[in-house]
Specification:
By secondary structure, the protein is mainly alpha-helical. The protein is 83% helix and 0% strand. The chain has helices at residues 4-47, 56-63, 67-70, 81-142. The longest helix has 62 residues, at 81-142. It is rod-shaped.
Length: 143
C-alpha cells in the first residue's frame, strides 16, 4: 500500500528529474563554453612561454650596456665631441631598448592579470561542474 509520503517521494523525484533534464541542457551549453574557455586558457598559457620577462637576449643586452650609460658620474671621462656623440647614440639606443622592453613587460603584466582572472573563472566553473556531478551521483545513489 502506497503512503502519502511515497507519493511525495515520487513527486519530488519527478521534479528532480525534470530539473536534471533542464540542467543537462544548461550543462551542455556550459560544457561547450567551458571548452572554448579552456582553449583560450591554454592559448594564454602558451603565449606566456614567449613573455618579455623570459627574453634572455634583451636582458643580456641591458646588462651589457656600457657603464657610462648607467652611471652619470662617469660622464667626466668624456673629453671630446666624438666620444660624446658616440655615448649620446648609445644612450639613445639604450633608451629605445628599455622603452620597448618596459612596454613589453607592462603588456605581459596585463596578460598575467587577465590569465589570473581566467584561471579563477575556470576553477570556479570546474567546481560548479564537480558539485553538479556529485549531486547527480547522490541522486542516483538515492534511487
Amino acid at each position: 500500500m502506497l503512503l502519502a509520503s511515497d507519493f511525495q517521494l515520487v513527486s519530488d523525484f519527478c521534479i528532480a528529474m525534470r530539473s536534471q533534464v533542464q540542467k543537462s541542457d544548461d550543462f551542455t551549453r556550459r560544457a561547450f563554453l567551458g571548452l572554448s574557455k579552456t582553449q583560450d586558457l591554454i592559448k594564454s598559457l602558451q603565449e606566456l612561454e614567449n613573455a618579455a620577462s623570459g627574453d634572455a637576449a634583451v636582458r643580456q643586452k641591458i646588462a651589457s650596456l656600457p657603464p657610462e650609460v648607467q652611471d652619470v658620474s662617469l660622464l667626466d671621462k668624456i673629453t671630446d665631441k666624438d666620444s660624446a656623440d658616440r655615448l649620446s647614440k648609445t644612450v639613445d639606443e639604450a633608451c629605445m631598448l628599455l622603452a620597448d622592453y618596459n612596454g613589453r613587460l607592462a603588456a605581459e603584466l596585463e596578460d598575467r592579470k587577465q590569465l589570473a582572472r581566467m584561471l579563477a573563472d575556470f576553477i570556479r566553473s570546474q567546481n560548479e561542474i564537480l558539485a553538479e556531478k556529485e549531486h547527480k551521483l547522490e541522486v542516483r545513489k538515492f534511487f
